[in-house]
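Re: flavin mononucleotide structure - here you go.
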Amino acid sequence: MNKDNEQLLSSYTLPNGVELKNRMIMAPMTNFSSNQDGTVTDSEVKYYARRSAGVSMVITACTNVTPNGQGFPGEFAAYSDEFIPSLKQLANGIKEKGAKAVLQIFHGGRMCPPDLVDGDVVSASDIPAEGEGNPTPRALSESEVEDLIEAFGETTRRAIEAGFDGVEIHGANGYIIQQFFSPHSNRREDRFGGSLQERMTFPLAVVEKVKSVVEKHATSPFIVGYRFSPEEPETPGITMDDTLTLVDKLADQGLDYLHVSLQEFFSKPRRGVEDLTKSRIDYLLETINNRVPLIGVGSIYSAQDARLAADTGIPLLAIGREIIIDPDWVQKLAEGKEDEIVTKLNKDNQEQLVVPDPLWNIISNTPGWFPGV
Ligand SMILES: Cc1cc2nc3c(=O)[nH]c(=O)nc-3n(C[C@H](O)[C@H](O)[C@H](O)COP(=O)(O)O)c2cc1C
């Protein structure tokens, strides 16, 4: 084995004592392939199982915690106990191959297509997302916000009952948790809005609720992670220093990891910090100061990409597009065959790659999204 890869393949113990067998994680990716009724499909479970033998942890596609949180067609649901058998199928499919299974819990808020949510598009405030044709959401009442926090807790309980090893709170990519943190989408005047501190109320309340459910219901260590996006392009919008304030707070909440959502691992801040030549990852690692592990992600394809990313000192790396392109990425690294890692989508290989039709049709027909397409 290439000696430089030893670090990537070494085990890592999360703060709750759960041991990850290596540093490589499958990033959460929506696959559009669940049944209309919100249950998982066999082809979807096979797609996950195919990718669960090398990485130490698989983070699932996002799943909605309430019916009006569905963000995508073909998204599997977790908003009621009737979905526990479906969730169990998914958790088992991942765990049987040796990876930890983490359920990404989410609500799409103002990003939900109206036809998926009976026209009831909701958010922190009635501000549409920027861009043509986006619906104007309805601002949640204070008691509805309380119910939503409860729903994140209930979905966590279902994840425990379904046998997942953990949940990831999806606070990234412009969905409802981020909508509460953002000065663009949150113009509330109650306790969930206002200053930067007040806009952290909802994200922190979700963390607290999820942790309290874990305390009450989990019988063995259960992973709780939190994903966030560092910046928004809009003005007003989340800036890098806003995020560092949030991350500083999150680092003290007893979470098992933080996970930054990036397209490019080495991307630089847009605004809000003094040195715009220093990477976002470096700022985050500095702020976190080893209080909680950070997962980095973004355009890691080759082994060399991963080694360069690991050189920043980040303990954990996620790969998204690349593990669709090559499900054997980690195994090839471990077997000293990193030269055989495939880094461009082979459009003739759907069957061998075990990718369900809806996901395949989207990724193989969207130019510029996946290398090779
Ligand atoms: C098909 C696809 C679906 C995605 N769905 C989600 C999702 O459900 N939740 C999430 O947090 N990120 C999602 N992402 C973002 C990825 O987790 C990841 O951050 C991004 O693709 C950059 O990593 P990569 O360069 O390794 O692909 C998705 C990405 C892709 C390609």
